[in-house]
């Protein structure tokens, strides 16, 4: 079982942009590696949001899963683009009075 941290990551298949996995985690790159080990399809971290703390990350993760329940595919996978998930994430953080920042590295995401 993974340990929860202050990030919420959206993982997608590299070649399919319409389905995203939502996960609260300590390290988006490590979480990606865990999911990548279970499939032959190339996965990428499409979005990663840093929250002020684990409590906010868990609340954001739960909110996204509840809000997107109508387009749930399986497990933590939802038929939503990373952009739609990002809009929902920003709106939730704004309503609850905390800031999230998108994590990027040189050349793109993690």
Taking all Cα atoms into account, the compactness measure Rg is: 13 Å
Stretches with pLDDT under 50, minimum 5 residues: none
User: Could you tell me the strand content as a percent range?
Assistant: 25-35%
Give me the secondary-structure category: alpha+beta
Largest sheet: 6 strands, antiparallel
Any idea how many domains?
1
Cα shape: globular
Number of helices: 3
pLDDT averaged residue by residue: 91
* Order of adjacent strands in the largest pleated sheet: 4-5-2-1-3-6
- Approximate helicity band: 25-40%
Distance between the termini: 21 Å
Brief summary:
This protein has 110 residues and is an alpha+beta fold. It is 34% helix and 29% strand. It is globular and about 40 Å long.
What keywords describe this structure?
110 residues, alpha+beta, six-stranded antiparallel sheet, 3 helices, 6 strands, 34% helix
Description of the molecule:
The chain is of the alpha+beta class. The protein has one domain (7-98). Helix content is 34%, strand content 29%. The protein is built from three helices and six strands, in the order ββαβαββαβ. The protein has helices at residues 28-36, 54-67, 82-95, and strands at residues 7-13, 16-25, 43-50, 72-74, 77-78, 101-102. Strands 4-5-2-1-3-6 form a six-stranded antiparallel sheet. Helix 2 (54-67) crosses helix 3 (82-95). The two termini are 21 Å apart.
């Amino acid at each position: 079982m993974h340990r929860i941290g202050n990030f919420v990551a959206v993982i997608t298949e590299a070649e399919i942009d319409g389905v995203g996995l939502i996960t609260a985690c300590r390290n988006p790159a490590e979480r990606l590696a865990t999911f990548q080990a279970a499939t032959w399809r190339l996965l990428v971290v499409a979005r990663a949001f840093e929250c002020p703390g684990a409590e906010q990350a868990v609340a954001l993760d739960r909110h996204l899963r509840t809000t997107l329940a109508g387009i749930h595919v399986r497990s933590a996978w939802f038929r939503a683009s990373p952009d739609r998930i990002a809009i929902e994430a920003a709106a939730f953080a704004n309503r609850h009075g905390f800031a999230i920042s998108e994590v990027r590295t040189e050349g793109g995401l993690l």
